[in-house]
Amino acid sequence: MAEREVEVRNPSGLHARPAASFVKAAGAFTADVRVTNLTRDAEKSASAKSVLGVMGLGVARGHQIRIVATGDDAAAAVTTLTDLVAAGLGETIEEA
Amino acid sequence: MTLELRGIPAAPGSAIGAPWIHQPSDSDAAVRSTLPTAAAAAAAELRTMAAGLRADGRDDEAEILEAQALMAGDPELLGSATSAMDGGTDVVAAVNDAGEAVAATFESLEDEVLSARAADVRDVCARIARHLVGGEAPRLERRSVVVAADLPPSVTVELDRALLAGIALEGGSRTSHAAILARGLGIPAVVGVPDLVRHARAAAELAVDGDAGRLVIDPDDRVRAEMASHAAAHGDRRVADAAFAGRLLATADGHRVTCAANIGEPGDAAAAFAAGAEAIGLFRTEFAFAGRASAPTEDEQAAAYASVFEAARGAQVVVRLADIGGDKPLPYVPIPTETNPFLGVRAIRLAASHPDLFPTQVRAILVASARTGRQASIMAPMVADAGDAAIVRGLVRDALAAVPDAPTPRVGIMVEVPSAVLLADELAREVDFMSIGTNDLTAYLLAADRTNAALAERQDPCHPAVLRAVARVVEAAAAAGDCAVAVCGEMAGDPVGACLLVGLGVDELSMEPAAFGAVKRAVAGRRLDELRALGTAAQAAPSAAAVRALMAA
Description:
The structure holds two protein chains of two kinds. Chain A is α+β, with helices and mostly antiparallel strands. Chain A has one domain (2-86): Histidine-containing Protein, Chain: A (2-Layer Sandwich). Helices cover 30% and strands 23% of the residues of chain A. Chain A is built from three helices and four strands. Chain A has helices spanning 16-26, 51-55, 74-86, and strands at 2-7, 32-37, 45-47, 64-70. Chain A has a four-stranded antiparallel β-sheet with strand order 1-4-2-3. In chain A, a hairpin with a 7-residue loop joins strand 2 (32-37) and strand 3 (45-47). Chain A is globular, with a radius of gyration of 12 Å. Helices cover 47% and strands 14% of the residues of chain B. Chain B has an eight-stranded mixed β-sheet. An eight-stranded parallel beta barrel of chain B has the order 9-10-11-12-13-14-15-16, surrounded by five helices. At the A-B interface, helix 1 and helix 2 of A face helix 2, helix 3, helix 4, helix 5 and helix 11 of B.
C-alpha cells in the first residue's frame, strides 16, 4: 500500500477538466486508487478512476487530498498522481 | 385556435414549425441491450458530437460533452447501477437511480459549478437508458419547434440543424445552457413559457418570436405573415450587423460614444477586443469567488486581474468589486438567511460585516495595476448614497497606501439603486465615473422581479421612468464636471435602447461583444440631434411599449 497527501492548487480544483485529467491518469494503473478530500470530509473517499466520484468530493483550490493505492503498481500510482496534482493538472498555478 | 403565450426572449429571430416535444425515454419499454454496451454507445455518441463542436470552434460546448462522455463510462456509476440490478431493480431504473444519487451529491455540496454539472449527469443517464431500450436518437422529421421542460445541451446539438427552426422551453433562463447554445447557433428561442408543454401537445404548429419572448400556438395568417417578414428581416439584419461590428460607435453625423465590453472571465478580454471593443466597461469578478471553499487570496486575484490589464494593452478596464449576495451564498461569506436577497445584505453592503473581503480585492486590483503599469478603474456595485461612496474611496485610499507603486485608480460606482439616481448630484462629485446598471435599476424602479416571466413587460429598460433616471444621472455628471457616465446593462446592447442612451448623452455603452454590430449599425443610422429629440420625447411617453413604437416610427 502507498499513501500521500497533497494540496490542490490549480484554480478550478478537481472539477471539470482537471478532474478528467486526474481520472485518465489513474486509469493507467492496475492498482486500486482511492482519494479523500481531507478539507471537506476525511471520512469519505472515492475511486480515483471515477470522474463522478472524484467530482463528488467537491475538491476546490486550497483543499488537501489524500491518495491511497493498493496493488502491484501502488507506489508508482501514488507518486504519479501526487506529482500531477502538484504540477496543476494542466492548469497554471499562480504562486501564492 | 390561435393562442399567445409570453416567455423570456432567449435567442433572437422568429420561426414557425411543428411542435416536437422532447421528453426522457419511456422507462417501460423492453430492454434490448446490456448496460456495458449501452454505456459505451452513449459515450461514443457524446465523443462524436464533441468532436463536431470542436471542429466548429465551439470549444466550451465541446468540453461539456467530452466530460459527459467520461461520465457515461464511469465505473462507480455503472457499479452502483449493477449492484442495484443484482438486488432486483430493473436496468433502466437502476441507471437513472444511480445518476440521481450522484446528481444529488453534486447539488448538496453548495458549489455552483458542481450543481450545474448535476443536470449533465442526469442527461448522461437518460442517454444510456435510451440505448438500453434501443430507442432512436431524437430525430426531427420536418421543420420543427423543439418544446421541452428543459433541453440538455447534448440533445440540442444532436438535432438536425436544417430542421430545427426554433426552441421553446417551459423552464430555463437566458443563462441556461440551452439558451446560450441557441444564441451561439442562431436558433430563435423563448424560455420560461408557463404551461407550454401542455399547450404544445394539442397544437399543430408553433411560432417562436425570440425577440419579443412570445410563443404563438397555431398561428393564424396574420401572425404567420408577421413572422415571415420578421424572419426575412432577421436574416438580412444579421448580415448587415456583422459588417458594422469592427467600426467605431458613432452617430451618422460623427458623434462618438465609447463601445465597451462586459466580461465575466479574464479569458473573455482578448476576444472582446478582437470583436471591436475600445474598453472593458464591466469586468465582473464573481468568477474569482464562485465554486470554492475559501476566499481567493490577494495573489490569486491579482494574477487574474493582471491578465485582463495585459489583454487591454492600455485600454480602460473597469473592474467591478464582487457582487456577492444571499442568492448565491459562498461558504466563506456567511450571510444569514434572507427572505429577499436582492434587497438584502449584498455587494458593497458586505463591507461592514466582512472586513477582509473588499480590502483584499482592492489591493489585488492595485497589485495587478502596478505589475502591468496600467491604471485601473474600480467600480463598486449597489452604492446607495454618498456614505457608500465614501466607503469605496476609503477602501481605495487604504489599498493605495499598501501598494504605493500602483497608478492612482479611477473610482466609480454602479448606479442601480434608485436612491443613487436621486442623489446623483452628490455622488457625481465623489467619483470619477458612474455606470448605470439598467437591469437592476429597472427592476428596482418598477418593482418588477427580473426572474418573474409574468412581469416581462414591466422589465423593459426603455421605460420612461428609466430614461428619466438616465437623464438625471447624465445631468448630475455634467454639473459635477469631471465625471463620465456609462451604461453597462442589457439596454446598452439593445439597438433601440442604445440609440436612446446616446440621445440622452451617455458617454459609453458597455455590452456583450455579440451586440456590437447591431448597436453600431442602429446608432450609425441616426443623427445626434434626431436622437436627442427622441430621447426627450421618449421620457414623456406613457409606457415602454410606447417608447419602442416611437423609436420604430
